[in-house]
Amino acid sequence: MGSPVSHTTDDHNADSGSASALGEAFLQLMPITGVSISVFNQALKQSTIYASDDTAARLDELQFDLGEGPAFDSVRSTAPVLLGDIAAEAQERWPIFTQSLSALPVGALFTFPLVMGAVCIGVATLYSTTPGNLSDDTTATGRSVARSIAGPALRRAARSAHSDEPLGMGQPVIELRREVHQATGMVVGQLNISATEAFARLRAHAFSTDRTVQQVAHEVLSRDLNFSQLSDG
Length: 233
Known about the structure:
This protein is of the alpha+beta class. It has 2 domains: 10-161, Beta-Lactamase, CATH 3.30.450.40; 178-229, Arc Repressor Mutant, subunit A (Orthogonal Bundle). The chain contains 9 helices and 5 strands, in the order αββααβααββαααα. It has a 5-stranded antiparallel beta sheet. α1 (19-29) runs antiparallel to α6 and α7 crosses α9. The chain is globular and about 55 Å long.
């Protein structure tokens, strides 16, 4: 998939604090179409800090909504997940996610964990519109970039969590999923259940109504949706 990239991450100031600078490190050094960068907490709750384009943003959102996909596997294993042909390689591992990909122009998908020491704090999800494997040199470049941006990505997520600062500088702008976490808390109160079960209810309702978890969360916060008033079905 393209020729090996000979540049190094020293060409980029990944610690500039700009979310777009973190994404540009991948876009300029690797033969990819787009990228998103997300930070996870210990409960695997996700905050997206950058998406280069609509497709990158949707890839990130789909995995968040469905709770499956290469990003979660990459975070858990602290290893890259490299899919040179997404249509041929992903169906058995993530059937629902793969089915949802059919509407997106994605031929190849690569995730690189953001590792600090022995801890994985997030993931970069890279995609290409055409199928093709990464060379060993390009994979090494992806690993190097992911390591170099892990600290800046975590600091940016932390800053944004305590301010109204927008996160992503790509198109569209991605905001921290505070609404989802707030809505989860409201569902806990509505149904007297655990936060894990409340989030599962949000996710299931989004899937069954063909909407995103973010959209359902917004309805909960605006009081247009109360889970205690829904039937068990």
